[in-house]
């Protein structure tokens, strides 16, 4: 959903995409800083906390979650004209 919102010509939709992306990445960064690992899923209501439910216990280092985080960082932090400088400290090149 986020890529579709970002690609629209509607500024409100683009802002929603950026807000969702930054919340997701912030939650990933907070979770990693607190637990020293990335999780498969995150709790939408509690930033940095891993999610629950599903067929098995939460996994750490789950590939698709890591890939989504990297993609959002690339789209909304590195390649974004409105980039907030405070996030650069989290990006290694």
Automatic annotation (TrEMBL):
Origin superkingdom: Eukaryota
Record-listed E.C. numbers: 3.2.1.28
Name of protein: Trehalase
InterPro entries the UniProt entry points to: 6-hairpin_glycosidase_sf, 6hp_glycosidase-like_sf, Glyco_hydro_37
Family stated for the protein in its record: Belongs to the glycosyl hydrolase 37 family.
A GO BP annotation: trehalose catabolic process
Pfam families xref list: Trehalase (PF01204)
SUPFAM superfamilies cross-referenced by the UniProt entry: Six-hairpin glycosidases (SSF48208)
Species per Swiss-Prot/TrEMBL record: Rhamnusium bicolor
Alphabetical list of PANTHER family matching this protein: TREHALASE
Catalytic reaction(s) noted: alpha,alpha-trehalose + H2O = alpha-D-glucose + beta-D-glucose
GO molecular function, one term: alpha,alpha-trehalase activity
């Amino acid at each position: 959903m986020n890529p579709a919102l970002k690609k629209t010509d509607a500024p409100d939709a683009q802002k929603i995409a950026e807000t969702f992306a930054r919340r997701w990445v912030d939650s990933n960064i907070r979770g990693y800083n607190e637990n020293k690992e990335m999780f498969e899923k995150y709790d939408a209501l509690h930033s940095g906390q891993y999610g629950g439910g599903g067929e098995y216990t939460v996994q750490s280092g789950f590939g698709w979650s890591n890939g989504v985080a990297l993609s959002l960082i690339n789209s909304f932090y590195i390649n974004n004209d409105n980039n907030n400088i405070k996030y650069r400290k989290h990006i290694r090149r």
